[in-house]
Amino acid sequence: MSQVLVNGVFLGCLFAVVAVGLTLVYGVMEVPNFAHAGVIVLSAYTTWSASAAGLPFALAALAGIACGALVSVLTEVLAYRWIVDRPAAAPAVALGLMLILQNVALRLYGGEGRSLDTPYDRVLLRLGGVSLSGVKAALVVLAVVSLLALHLLLSRTSLGRAMRAVAQDREAAAILGIPMRRQYALAFLIAGVLGGVAAIAYAPTFQVSPYMADEVLLSAFVVVVLGGLGSVWGAVAGGLVLGVVEGLGSAYLSPAYQSAFGFLLLVSILVLRPDGLRSTNARRVA
């Protein structure tokens, strides 16, 4: 049982990192950012390419995170910015961007899966009857550090306070003189960094390929709804809950239906608590 819960927490941390990037963008721009999957893919390929070229893994990982941040900001500047006042067009644009980024990766690297090796591949941590691979331990550490850093940014800095103001009331924030485009770009920058973190944490457990992020993106959207749209800490809580539920279902019922357990949980939450685990009365980043 303990081992199953640990595996569930690992999944939950992965879902949380991806979902927080999605909910941050949704809170600020009200955009369902499907293109986040393409950001993760290109970040993973950049990390793999840099590592294959001989760079130390730490530098390769930084290159992957930088790629994620750059690509994410470019999607905002080149596409999302022009539809901010036309929310009905956002899902189609987001889906189109995802397909474009995935096909860019397919064109550049082909469809063959690539293995990303890390310095901690062969590390195995044991505590009592529970074991945790180095790859999973690194993911948990990266997730905790990233989310704590985001919390400090949102709660302790003027940039974070401005972002929360935009999420709570876009029109009032504009009247107060908050530069809206800067806040949009900042939200996508942070989401891209988190996408890069998710890529370097997820890629060692799953081959790098143009469609590697599709399944985790679907789970992350479930997490966003579970946690309450626009709530960062709701997304964290939702990620951990979904990870544990999928881990338990996979261990005690069948791994073949792992994703289905998450959607069953989603339906249950929507019936019992339609606003999610943490209700939000507006688009809010908190």
Question: How would you describe this protein?
Answer:
This protein is mostly helical and 286 residues long. 70% of the residues lie in helices and 3% in strands. The chain is built from 11 helices and 2 strands; from the N terminus they run ααααββααααααα. The chain has helices spanning 2-29, 36-52, 57-78, 90-109, 134-156, 158-168, 170-175, 180-202, 214-227, 232-252, 258-272, and strands at 124-127, 130-133. The protein has a two-stranded antiparallel ribbon. A hairpin with a 2-residue loop joins strand 1 (124-127) and strand 2 (130-133). Helix 1 runs antiparallel to helix 8, helix 1 (2-29) packs antiparallel against helix 10 and helix 9 packs parallel to helix 11 (258-272). The two termini are 33 Å apart. The model has no long low-confidence stretch (mean pLDDT 85).
- Find the structural class using helix and strand composition: mainly alpha
What pattern of helices and strands is seen along the backbone? HHHHEEHHHHHHH
Q: Could you say which overall geometry the principal axes of the C-alpha atoms support?
A: globular
Largest β-sheet summary: 2 strands, antiparallel
Quaternary structure state of the chains depicted? single chain
Helix amount, in percent?
Answer: 55-70%
CA-atom Rg in angstroms = 18 Å
Provide mean pLDDT, rounded: 85
Strand order of the largest sheet: 1-2
Report how far apart the termini are.
33 Å
Strand content: under 5%
**Strands, count:** 2
> Which segments are poorly predicted (pLDDT under 50) over 5 or more consecutive residues?
none
Count of helical regions: 11
